[in-house]
Amino acid sequence: MTGGSTDIRFLLLSTEYGGNAGACARVLANLGFGPPVLVEPRFEDWAEARKFAVHAAGLLETAPRFDSLERAVADAHWVVGTSCRGRKHPDRKPPMGPEEFASRLRSLAAGEKAAVVFGPESTGLTNAELGLCQDILYLPTSPDYPSLNLAQAVALVAWEARKALGREAGREAGTAGRARVSAGEIEGLIGHMRRTLSVIGYLNPQNPDIVLDDLRKVLMRAEPDGRELAMLRGIFHKMDVWIDMHGGPENPNKKNRRNRG
User: What is the dotted CATH code of the domain comprising 183-260?
Assistant: First the structure.
């Protein structure tokens, strides 16, 4: 569903039961959305999935599939992970409620894509998977029984999205400001940072992801546009050139230019 100018997708990561995948497809069809995106599905009972999808079984047949979360969110501009659990360090990435989620969804620029990620039924999203998300959507439930069925969680979020996008339909394209870069482009910069910062000894070789995860959070909060991302890539490229000229590892961009020649 694009609801005017915003495209939102619902990603089911490592779903364990076919019935839940089918029920999710059904509720998304009920609310006017396209098929769920299946990322590394674990279930094998597709007959059960189609049974629970009822008349939305066709959505399962056309559902996009990915073998990793990184690839599934690569072209998304806003990635939101869902959770019913409290966070040990909420100050590092404060979770938002459904109302804030709807407000942020309405604020996306024309043509930007949003992705909402739902984890496996038994564990939910891991910290590493939440680390790939710009924001965390907390679904408030009773502390006595906080866990929601997967399809129930999808229904709650989809309903908020439907309301938000319905109100968005009359907005003129392009009024939300500059277009932020996609999650895949940010991951490209993170990969560049990993190499260069490793060469200069800034990262702990035993656990480089501690610093890189914090840098990813900084970038996600900043929501850079294409010009700003190019500037950051340019800074790290200049660092690579300097390292190459002073006896360090060869600048990888030099190899790329040589191969193209």
Answer: 1.10.8
